[in-house]
Design brief:
The complex is a heterodimer of chains A (about 130) and B (about 400).
Chain A: H1 6-13, E1 26-32, E2 37-46, E3 49-58, H2 61-74, H3 79-83, H4 87-93, H5 101-104, H6 108-125
Antiparallel strand pairs in A: 1-2, 2-3
Helix pairs in contact in A: 1-2
Chain B: E1 2-3, H1 14-20, H2 36-55, E2 63-66, H3 69-87, E3 93-97, H4 102-113, E4 117-121, H5 131-137, E5 142-148, H6 160-169, E6 175-179, E7 198-202, E8 213-217, H7 243-258, H8 260-281, E9 285-287, E10 299-304, H9 309-318, E11 321-322, E12 324-325, H10 338-342, H11 347-350, E13 353-357, H12 364-384, H13 394-397
Helix pairs in contact in B: 1-7, 2-7, 3-4, 8-12, 9-12
Classes of the chains: A alpha+beta (about 130), B alpha/beta (about 400).
Chain lengths: ~130, ~400
Amino acid sequence: MNMYSEKVMDHFKNPRNVGELKDADGVGTVGNPICGDVMTIYIKVKDNIISDVKFKTFGCAAAIATSSIMTEIAKGKTLEEAEKITKADVASNLDGLPPQKMHCSNLSSDALHLAIENYRKTKEKK
Amino acid sequence: MIYLDNAATTQISDDVIKAMVPYFSEKFGNPSSIYSFGSNVNKVIEESRNIIAQIIGANPKEIIFTSGGTESNNLAIIGIAQEIHKKDSKKNHIITTKIEHPSVLNTFKHLESIGFSVDYLDVDSDGVVDVEQLKDLVTENTIFVSVMHANNEIGTIEPIEKIGSFLASLKHRVYFHVDAVQTYTKVPIDVKKANIDLLSISSHKIHGPKGVGALFVKKGVSLKPLMFGGPQERSMRPGTENVSGILGFSKASEIAFKDMEKNNKHMISLRNKLIDSIEKNISDVILNGAKGDMRLSNNVNISFKYVEGESLLLYLEMEDIFVSTASACSSKKLEPSHVLLAIGRPHEFAHGAIRFTLSKYTTTEEISKLLDILPPIVKKLRDMSSIDKDTDMTKFKETDEHV
């Protein structure tokens, strides 16, 4: 077995909610191809609740698994609840991540928070 | 299992194991002992030395057995630098390339940290060392130059004969070290013809055991040893010899040298099939390293754009196929391969590089299976990827930092 938990490998092998949301209410992209990880999270918001989430990720197994689990954690949460999701929450939902992956590849909470910020800004403009 | 990581290590062949076994059990004597139970073992070491010396065109006395490629490189580099600097303190300049194995690069960095002046030669987009730049950099204070015979990541074969003859033509003595770990018994080596003073080779890359290697030290060249002890290996590498390892190494050398042409032909045909089929069937790929005769017979290194190497490697592992990646995400330092950056690959393509290295045991069926499995895996990862050919990479390049 490699350095990843079974849960990480499950989400890496069968990622949930892959793709784009064409009519997304908020989009957040974090990372950098120079570092090797770029993820984009798309959200649909209905009555202050995240009704749908999808992701696209360029990166290692940890980057893909953290994106996938994030979509499961965030779905159905209020925006305020979703804003409180941390990197540690994401990692513990995957039964942990190797230490070197904790910061560089565990970016999905940042991407989600950016998507929420993007949603709020767009809403203000309207 | 389809094992395509033979540049990392190889399977020991059965003949080699068979030859080694008696030296763990009934023939356990110490080669330094005077009685025949020990001195008979010493004969085996001397026969092994003979076999290896012949393969590289050396005299048996010029072969020092070590624990492997890393030790050979350390002994050569630190040994010659300190020996010459001790005799003439003005001499403090050493030269290597940007694409060496870590056991050379980090040894140079160590010497740099204790005051030696170091130059790292550039390579072109194929990974070939800039010999003209070397000619400009060599001074009267240059102690030695170290250039690998072929690169372990991208398989480019370096013009060592050209470098050797340039160094030999100089009025002042500049020593020449070659790390031949990847080429030994794959590319013919003649240490005299190539004007080599020091040459590192290793056993476990050629279907021999791990933990044994050798350093060729040209007659008349003296090195400051790294270790001190008994008179073994002319005191340059003291300590009771790794008898079974040395015997395994020489047996593996003998077999590989005898079959060199046959094995190369086999591996080149599979190598070319792999490269051609990937280039034909998968879009947006780049071959890293030189083509044709300038490429190691068993090396294929390809960047699959818009996917990350570790992900590709792990999907292949699920299919029981073992390859390697120089992707940053696979390493603890989070930097992509120094070799791929030196040949000018952008970071995002360096991350998607996969190295497939073949051996004499690799079969046509195995390569065909890989070629069936690979395209859908690349497609799955690309469908998942947040970057593609339309992504504006320049928007990322302003910040060269980890988030």
